[in-house]
C-alpha cells in the first residue's frame, strides 16, 4: 500500500510556529516519524506540503493509481476549502483527516471542517500522535482489519 500524506498551508513552519499550540517538532521530523510508522505497518508513505490550494487539488487529482489512501492535515484550508473537499470526494480515495491541535477547543472558526463529512474519520488534538494514529486507522481501514 502507498499512502499520500498531504500537509496544507503554514505547516512548513512547524517547529517555530506557535509551538505552544503545535509543538516543537519540525515538518521534516513529523515526516520522519510517519515513515518509521509506515515501515512498521509495511506501507509506503509519501509526504507533500503546499501552501497553495490549487497545488493540493492537483496533487489529489493525480493520486489515484499511485496511492490507495490519503492522510491529510489541510491546515486552515480545512475550514475554508470546498475545492479541497470536492477534490477528495472526486477521486474517491479513502481519506483520514488529522490535526495537531484540538480544533474544537480553539476559536469558533476552527470548529467547522469541510473535509470531515467526506473523510473516513478525523483525529484532532494529539500533536504528532494525531498523524501516527491517523496513519494506523487508514491502513486498518484499507486492510479491512476487524479489530
Ligand atoms: C491545524 C488546525 C488549523 O485550524 C490551523 O489552521 C492549522 C493547523 C492543526 O494541525 O492543528 O494550520 O490543522
UniProtKB/TrEMBL annotation:
Top-level class of the enzyme under EC nomenclature: lyase
Cited InterPro entries: DHquinase_II (IPR001874), DHquinase_II_CS (IPR018509), DHquinase_II_sf (IPR036441)
Electron transport among keywords: no
Residues marked Transition state stabilizer (site): 17
GO molecular function: 3-dehydroquinate dehydratase activity
Pathway: Metabolic intermediate biosynthesis; chorismate biosynthesis; chorismate from D-erythrose 4-phosphate and phosphoenolpyruvate: step 3/7
CDD domains: DHQase_II
Annotated active site: 22 (proton acceptor), 99 (proton donor)
Residues that bind substrate: 73, 79, 86, 100-101, 110
Domain of life: Bacteria
Keywords: Amino-acid biosynthesis, Aromatic amino acid biosynthesis, Lyase
Documented EC number(s): 4.2.1.10
Catalysed reaction, written as an equation: 3-dehydroquinate = 3-dehydroshikimate + H2O
PANTHER family: CATABOLIC 3-DEHYDROQUINASE (PTHR21272)
Assembly mode: Homododecamer.
Stated role: Catalyzes a trans-dehydration via an enolate intermediate.
UniProt family annotation: Belongs to the type-II 3-dehydroquinase family.
The name this protein goes by in its record: 3-dehydroquinate dehydratase
Source organism per UniProt: Calothrix anomala FACHB-343
Lineage: Bacteria, Bacillati, Cyanobacteriota, Cyanophyceae, Nostocales
Amino acid at each position: 500500500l502507498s499512502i499520500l500524506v498531504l500537509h496544507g498551508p503554514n505547516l512548513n513552519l512547524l517547529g517555530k510556529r506557535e509551538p505552544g499550540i503545535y509543538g516543537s517538532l519540525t515538518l521534516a521530523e513529523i515526516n520522519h516519524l510517519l515513515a518509521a510508522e509506515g515501515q512498521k505497518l509495511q506501507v509506503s508513505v509519501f509526504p507533500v506540503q503546499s501552501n497553495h490550494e490549487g497545488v493540493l487539488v492537483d496533487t489529489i487529482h493525480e493520486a489515484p493509481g499511485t496511492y490507495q489512501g490519503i492522510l491529510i492535515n489541510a491546515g486552515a484550508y480545512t475550514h475554508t476549502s470546498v475545492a479541497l473537499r470536492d477534490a477528495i470526494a472526486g477521486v474517491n480515495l479513502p481519506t483520514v483527516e488529522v490535526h495537531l491541535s484540538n480544533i474544537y477547543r480553539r476559536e469558533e472558526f476552527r470548529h467547522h471542517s469541510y473535509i470531515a463529512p467526506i473523510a473516513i474519520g478525523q483525529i484532532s488534538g494529539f500533536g504528532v500522535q494525531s498523524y501516527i494514529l491517523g496513519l494506523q486507522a487508514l491502513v486498518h481501514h484499507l486492510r479491512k482489519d476487524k479489530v
